[in-house]
């Protein structure tokens, strides 16, 4: 009977269509089918999976992108979802590339135990923080681009314009440019440069206001989500927001503080050679989270007395600054993990749905 066998699903996710596959407990390919990325399509996909037997787990590629909604849907329907990484290039060369192949590969990765990660739930306050931070980050990038373009134009501007803008701070420069009243014809370089500078300055001001509005929205959310985290030395709303987004709404999926350090790219790995015996940080993980930890460390090195004493002591011992920063980033990751929301003293173990096969 179909309902007496245990099956594992796999989904290769795309914008409009998801390719699903199902295998049995010994890895035999049973079926593959495409489903639309709509609520009705998700329900048909789930019904199709269950028609083949008891669904133990479903491996999903791209749970942080195209597969985010199907992962939420399956989880809400009591189906264990496992995050599956895309096959590496060697596997693609050996096995080929197609949507059914990738879907079967996702299911096989779950069955073999190669994939076992719990995806972010993306259904709480941290997801709201992440969405707002996306807009803020792009606004900051555009504001930086605008001021860089202003300064580049000033360098090549006629002296009648350039000389009036020498030695001004960014704020003074923007305020001065927004008050420009260009006169003359557009084919006059002086007039054209003034118009361009005024437009860039106004763009800078608009982006600056947008960033301030985002800060007013994100700050209270971060404090609400993790009041203990935001209270740590050197941790502000921006760095805390990034670390929360990296951990997700369900930080219990990270089984230990070591796994959180690995996620943030601060887990030490051996880097010895010959007479040199040292460690370095692994270069994998979430580099936005790594950058947040780096920012926290720099702030503490300047303003936190305990950190300054540590730096002085390790410097006297002959340790290089980059190695001191490495040690501090690992310490901060350990401290941050303890203050993530919803964490308890007993760590959450990953669910292993295939043990009874």
Features:
single chain; 357 residues; alpha/beta; 5-stranded mixed sheet; two-stranded antiparallel ribbon; 14 helices
Structure commentary:
The protein is α/β, with parallel strands linked by helices and 357 residues long. It has 14 helices and seven strands. The strands form two sheets. The chain has a five-stranded mixed β-sheet. A two-stranded antiparallel sheet has the order 6-7. Helix 5 runs antiparallel to helix 8 and helix 12 (287-303) packs across helix 13 (305-316). The longest helix is centred in the middle third of the chain and has 37 residues, at 189-225. The protein is globular and about 85 Å long.
Fold blueprint:
Elements: E1 6-12, E2 17-24, E3 29-36, H1 39-50, E4 54-61, H2 68-76, E5 81-84, H3 89-95, H4 99-112, H5 125-156, H6 159-162, H7 170-178, H8 189-225, H9 227-230, H10 237-247, H11 257-263, E6 268-270, E7 279-281, H12 287-303, H13 305-316, H14 321-338
Parallel strand pairs: 1-4, 4-5
Antiparallel strand pairs: 1-2, 2-3, 6-7
Helix pairs in contact: 5-8, 5-10, 7-8, 8-10, 10-12, 11-14, 12-13, 12-14
């Amino acid at each position: 009977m179909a309902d007496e066998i245990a099956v594992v699903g796999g989904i290769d996710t795309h914008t409009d269509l998801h390719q699903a596959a199902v295998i049995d407990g010994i890895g035999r390919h049973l079926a593959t089918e495409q489903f639309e990325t709509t609520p009705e399509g998700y329900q048909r996909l789930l019904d199709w999976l269950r028609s083949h037997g008891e669904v133990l787990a479903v491996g999903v590629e791209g749970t942080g992108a195209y597969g985010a909604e199907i992962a939420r849907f399956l989880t809400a329907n009591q189906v264990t979802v496992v995050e599956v990484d895309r096959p590496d290039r060697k596997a693609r060369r050996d096995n080929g590339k197609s949507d059914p192949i990738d879907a079967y590969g996702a299911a096989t990765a779950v069955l073999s135990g190669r994939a076992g990660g719990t995806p972010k739930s993306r259904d709480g306050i941290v997801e709201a923080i992440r969405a707002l931070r996306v807009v803020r980050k792009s606004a900051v990038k555009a504001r930086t681009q605008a001021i860089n373009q202003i300064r580049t134009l000033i360098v090549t501007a006629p002296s009648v314009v350039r000389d009036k803008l020498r030695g001004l701070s960014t704020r003074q420069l923007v305020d001065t440019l927004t008050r420009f009243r260009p006169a003359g014809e557009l084919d006059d370089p002086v007039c054209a440069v003034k118009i361009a500078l005024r437009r860039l300055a106004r763009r800078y001001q608009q982006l600056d206001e947008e960033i301030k509005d985002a800060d007013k929205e994100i700050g209270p959310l971060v404090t609400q989500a993790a009041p203990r985290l935001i209270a740590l030395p050197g941790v502000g709303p921006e760095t805390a927001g990034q670390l929360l987004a990296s951990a997700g709404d369900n930080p219990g999926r990270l089984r230990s503080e070591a796994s959180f350090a690995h996620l943030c790219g601060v887990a030490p790995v051996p880097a010895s050679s010959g007479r040199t015996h040292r460690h370095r940080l692994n270069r994998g993980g979430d580099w936005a989270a790594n950058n947040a930890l780096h920012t926290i460390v720099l702030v503490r090195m300047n303003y936190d007395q305990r950190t300054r004493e540590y730096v002085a002591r390790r410097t006297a011992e002959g340790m290089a600054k980059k190695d001191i920063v490495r040690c501090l980033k690992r310490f901060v990751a350990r401290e941050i993990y303890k203050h993530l929301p919803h964490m308890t003293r007993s760590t959450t173990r990953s669910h292993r749905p295939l043990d009874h096969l």
